[in-house]
Each structure stands twice: as structure tokens, then as C-alpha cells.
Write a structure and sequence with these properties.
Layout lengths: L3 E2 L6 E14 L6 E13 L4 E3 L2 E10 L3 E4 L27 E3 L5 E4 L1 E26 L2 E22 L11 E5 L9 E12 L4 E10 L15 H7 L9 E10 L10
Length: about 260
Amino acid sequence: MALAFSIPSAGQSIFVKAGGGLSSQWGAAGTVGAGKIALGYEYEFSQSLAIAPSIGFTTRGWQVADATTPDMLFDEAGNMLDADGNITQNPAEQAQRFQTDADGRPVAPLYSVMHRTYTTNYVQLDVPLNYYHRLGEHRYLVATAGVWGAVGVAGKRKTEGDGYACGGRKLKYTDSVFSLDGAHRFDAGVKVGVGYQFPSSLTLNAELEAGLIPTNSKGVCPEGMDPAVFVAHDAFAGRSGRTYAVTITVAYKLNKSKWRPE
């Protein structure tokens, strides 16, 4: 829920906006939750047009397509093992685990389905213009368009079912997104939205934010490597993309000057 307090100027307001929704990358396999909370300042150019910059904390992310990975063989100390059960330092010699029958004989190779979810958290500056169209007494339709820039401060990549990992990491592990090779900490883009301002000075908005900068550099598959193996090992699953988020937000200000002259 948003909070705000009034200031004396007739054409200015301080507000707080909060909300949530869904986010992903264009072309990614799935969505994750998105959220925002921000403190803003609205300055009116006229009874219809205002600029409303804000700064706050946002979260968004995406899911990549699942990848089938062979379940590789390690000993209890985490050393790679070859087909004879001997320790090897050469990944090309590492053996795949096999399903065995009642007599311990290998029957079929084992595979894992690897699923990865990325979430990123930013300090974000929004600079939108708001256009107010009067619908009735103290009620307005609000159209929003502008730009935004963000600096990543935290984030994680959650991996499940990685057959190339050792021990319990085969089931699940997490990494810091911005510590991964090729990660971009800065993001920026455009935003549009539409909202309804109630007589209480509460505004309900639906917003779309679209990133214009790739979140990471795309990895290049080394010559001779199986592309499926590369996708499983690459920090960002062999792809780069631009994020988007669709959110429902609520803003509230106690400054009643936003109620335009009728």
C-alpha cells in the first residue's frame, strides 16, 4: 500500500507507489514475479500535464527453457570419475551415471532435466510524464509514458536438476546473478501505463516497462562442443535478452491540490 504526505505548493506532490505483477524476457520460456516500491515527486506543468520522477526498488526476472543434461559421475569428495571408477581431471573422460538392475549391472544412462530461474533486484529511477483527462468531479484517467534506468544491486539464479553438478547440487543450488560471467548490472528502457485517479487522490495504474539493454552478453559455443552441453554450462543458458515487466501499482498522495478545478 502506498503512503504520501502533502507539501504546500499547489502544483506539486510527493507520493509513494507500490505494486507487483509478472516479468520475463522477450522470447524466454517463462515468467516470474515482479515488484516495485518507490518514492516520487510530481510537478504540474498545467492542469493536464505533469512530470513525476521517482526512485525506488524493483525486482524482476525470467525463466529459460529446460535443458536435458546427462547425470555425471563423481565420488564422495567431488572428484570426477571415469567409466572405470578412477579419478580424472579431464571432463571429456568423465563417465555418465547409469541405472542398474538388481544385480548391479548398468541398464540405461541417467539424465536430469535442468530448470533455471533468474531474479534481479535494482535501484531504479523512473522519469514519466502523466497526462490527466477529467472524467468527473475529482476523477481522472491518467496516461503515462516515459523512460527509466536501473542499477542492479542483488539477484540470484536458481538451478534445479543439474546433472553436471556434484552431490546435493544435482538437486538444487543458487548463484548470484551479477557475479556470473557476462552479466550486465545496468539496465534502462521505456514505460507506458494507464491509470484511474479516485477522488481520494488514490491512483490505480497498469504499467508496462520494457528494457532496451540486454541483461547479459551472449556466450559463444566453443568449436567442437555439443551445443546442448554449452547451453547447460553457460551462465545464461546460451542466450541474452531484454526484460519486460507488467505490473499493477497503487499510488497515494495527501496533497489535495491534485484535485483539479472543476
